[in-house]
Amino acid sequence: MKHDYPFALEHIASYRATLAEPEVIGPLAEGLRVNFHVTGGEVFGPRFSGVLRPVGADWFMLRSDGVGVLDVRATLETSDGALIYAEYGGLAEFGPDGYQNFLDGVPSPPEGIDLRIQPRFHTAHPDYLWLNRACCIGVGKAFPERGEVSYDVYQVA
């Protein structure tokens, strides 16, 4: 039985992040652990704009089935000086051979790796308190060899 609950998606921001060289911890029992540290980036959109501070990282796990599990923490600084803590999980699709390809040093596809995320935002700044209540989703692409990732983030309204 399907319910007809009304909802809408509102684009709130996009961002591009630059990443340091991957910190490969190595193959573990649960998968391949790789840490991607944020070196900077920009945030732009209809609800807020600013920069990604050069702190935070994705404590990433690539499973043997080629699915990457994201575990990201970052700090955004808006153009008016507000600090916003962002945290999100999500999935990266490396394909069924992605695990072995990564171990073998096979480059990622030129069109990038598809990303799906569920970000949560936290702030004390009065102009952005609405973010503390926002339920968001995001779609993006990762380009590991270039050290870049980008997302479009939407609020479910």
Description of the molecule:
This protein has 1 helix and 10 strands. The protein has one helix at residues 98-104, and strands at residues 9-19, 23-28, 31-44, 50-52, 57-62, 67-78, 83-93, 113-122, 136-143, 148-156. The model has no long low-confidence stretch (mean pLDDT 96). Strands 1, 2, 3, 4, 5, 6, 7, 8, 9 and 10 form a 10-stranded antiparallel beta sheet that branches. The longest helix is centred in the middle third of the chain and has 7 residues, at 98-104. The chain has a single domain, classed as Porin (Beta Barrel). It is 4% helix and 57% strand. The protein is mainly beta and 157 residues long.
What's this entry about, in short?
The protein is mainly β and 157 residues long. The protein has one helix at 98-104, and strands spanning 9-19, 23-28, 31-44, 50-52, 57-62, 67-78, 83-93, 113-122, 136-143, 148-156. Strands 1, 2, 3, 4, 5, 6, 7, 8, 9 and 10 form a ten-stranded antiparallel beta sheet that branches.
Defining traits:
157 residues; mainly beta; Porin; 10-stranded antiparallel sheet; 1 helix; 10 strands
How much helix, percentage-wise, in residues? under 10%
**Number of strand segments:** 10
Which regions contain 5 or more consecutive residues with pLDDT less than 50? none
* Strand percent estimate: over 45%
Task: Output the number of helix runs.
Answer: 1
Question: What's the N-to-C terminus distance?
Answer: 22 Å
Tally of individual domains: 1
Shape annotation = globular
Q: What's the architecture, going by CATH?
A: Beta Barrel
Order of helices and strands: EEEEEEEHEEE
Structural class: mainly beta
CATH fold-level label = Porin
